[in-house]
Design a protein that fits this description.
alpha+beta, Jelly Rolls, nine-stranded mixed β-sheet, 23% strand, globular, binds 2-oxoglutaric acid, binds fe (ii) ion, iron, IPNS-like_FE2OG_OXY, oxidoreductase, oxidoreductase activity, metal-binding
Length: 479
């Protein structure tokens, strides 16, 4: 049955001592996640003053001239993204009509908990020095919402018929980027094809979105009709992302949405995207699999990348191995290896594949403060990979060729899928795919890890820009 409105759920019941109230809350969450994939959370307990401070700070930031904001571009990492840089929906007209500032996990006091600073999604933030209050405002709000977000995982677990603590050990260091978004006012002749953020699904487990009172968020229902999700004072919009949808064998819906602001008033919103820890296997959860509803996804495959993005599998440094029995992909001693050879052109990757066909993904990240440079991203959006992985790469522009270590090696084609037609803006990602070779048991190939600059998006072994480096390699197999 299709939905025609986004339900509102009262979270004051989460702390109720009456078990029936809590059960009723869990039931509402379950209904919303299975039918709509979206709900409003009211009475979430996040202090309105924190929101006021962060919105004030973001408004001052975005009011700066473009040249100043551009200083804070750290592509694929954090910081500023200009208007029309992203294109969430490949079919949309023009780029996304919004600018963004992204913040990764960071403690207000960086010395307080060094255990968390593992370099995966932390320690990459930039803070505009012309706005001294910005960091405090953004991080205070961030941590308050993070706490609320983490408190939803047990409710999701109950809604899935799992023990309340099911997600606890899987969300100890969850990926949780926050984006401050500004959709500028539209003036003059407004093209009615302009979108603020094109149709897309979110990548991670779920998103908590604050939106101001301008409106413009829309959710696609099962009849392919856009349903408004208008602002409701004092609420967050919560939506399920691809990772939790996949993890729940599609029991929870990751629903397509977009935002349009063609008004002459500027709009602000703040999503925070909640992932899991990086080394969690997101094979379909047992309670979501039955004889009538067999597992739709293997334990690990390219689909994890193509549909669920990075968060569950973005941990590792260099050696990625596919287990032929389980089809599982895992990394060996990854982070340590990456740390031990920082910034070098040295060999850090070895790919071993037991299948006939594989893909390699390499993504690049700016060198993190901890010098454990990490990953991510990649091919994530569901609409690109509706039926497995045969199609998603077609039509990609070939940008260059990867110099291989051995002159006898057949060429690998290096293609950019984060360029002109891409939706993937959050992370600069590249696919390296073996159109001309087959990864087979007999093939164990070494690739070189090279510094790379976003300005020169090729793997070029002669480059040695100390600020950027290649990080990860993935090997994915058809199972
Ligand atoms: O600004 C909004 O209302 C939606 C933002 C969004 O969907 C996103 O950033 O993924
Ligand atoms: Fe979204």
């Amino acid at each position: 049955m299709s939905f025609h409105a986004v339900p509102v759920i009262d979270f004051s019941r989460a702390s109720s001592t009456d078990p029936d109230e809590r059960l009723a809350l869990v039931k509402d969450i379950k209904d919303a996640c299975t039918n709509v994939g979206f709900f409003y959370a009211k009475n979430h307990g996040v202090d309105a003053a924190l929101l006021q401070n962060v919105t004030k700070a973001m408004k001052s930031f975005f009011a700066h001239p473009l040249e100043e904001k551009q200083k804070w571009i750290r592509e694929g990492v954090a910081g500023y993204t200009p208007i029309q840089k992203l294109r969430h929906d490949p079919n949309q007209y023009g780029g996304d009509m919004h600018e963004a500032f992204e913040i990764k996990w960071e403690l207000l006091d960086p010395l307080a908990d060094s255990s968390r600073d593992d370099g995966i999604m932390s320690a990459t933030n930039v803070w505009p020095d012309e706005l001294p209050e910005f960091r405090l405002a953004a991080l205070s709000y961030y941590h308050a919402v993070l706490d609320f977000g983490l408190s939803i995982f047990p409710l999701f677990a109950l809604a899935l018929g799992l023990p309340e603590n099911f997600f606890d050990d899987k969300t100890t260091k969850p990926a949780a980027p926050m984006r401050l978004l500004h959709y500028p006012a539209q003036t003059g002749i407004i093209d009615d094809r302009t979108v603020g953020i094109g149709a897309h699904t979110d990548w991670q487990c779920f998103t908590l979105l604050w939106q101001d009172d301008v409106g413009g968020l829309q959710v696609l229902n099962q009849d392919n009709k856009w349903i408004d999700a208008p602002p409701i004072q004092g609420t967050f919009v919560v939506n399920i992302g691809d990772q939790l949808s996949r993890w729940t064998n599609d029991t929870f819906k990751s629903t397509v949405h977009r935002a349009i602001n063609r008004t002459n008033v500027e709009r602000f919103s703040i999503p925070i995207f909640f992932g899991s820890d990086y080394d969690v296997d997101i094979a379909p959860i047992a309670t979501c699999v039955s004889e009538d509803r067999p597992a739709k996804y293997p334990s690990a495959s390219l689909e994890i990348y193509s549909q669920s993005s990075f968060s569950a599998f973005a941990q590792f440094g260099c050696k990625v191995v596919v287990d032929s029995n389980s089809g599982r992909l895992f990394a060996q001693d990854a982070a340590r290896a990456a740390r031990s050879s920082p910034m070098s052109n040295s060999l850090i990757g070895e790919l071993v594949s037991n299948s006939d066909l594989g893909f390699v993904f390499i993504t690049f990240r700016e060198h993190a403060r901890t010098s454990s440079f990490i990953i991510v991203g990649s091919y994530s959006q569901r609409q690109y990979a509706p039926s497995g992985f045969a199609h998603p790469f077609s039509g990609l522009k070939t940008l260059g060729r990867l110099p291989l270590l051995s002159p006898q090696s057949p060429p690998l084609i290096f293609a950019d899928f984060d360029g002109s037609s891409s939706n993937l803006g959050r992370n600069r990602s590249y696919a390296l795919f073996n159109t001309s070779i087959q990864l087979s048991p007999s093939l164990s190939r070494h690739l070189c890890c090279a510094p790379v600059s976003p300005l020169h998006p090729f793997i070029d072994l002669s480059m040695s820009n100390p600020h950027y480096c290649t990080t990860m390699m993935y090997c994915l197999t058809r199972t």
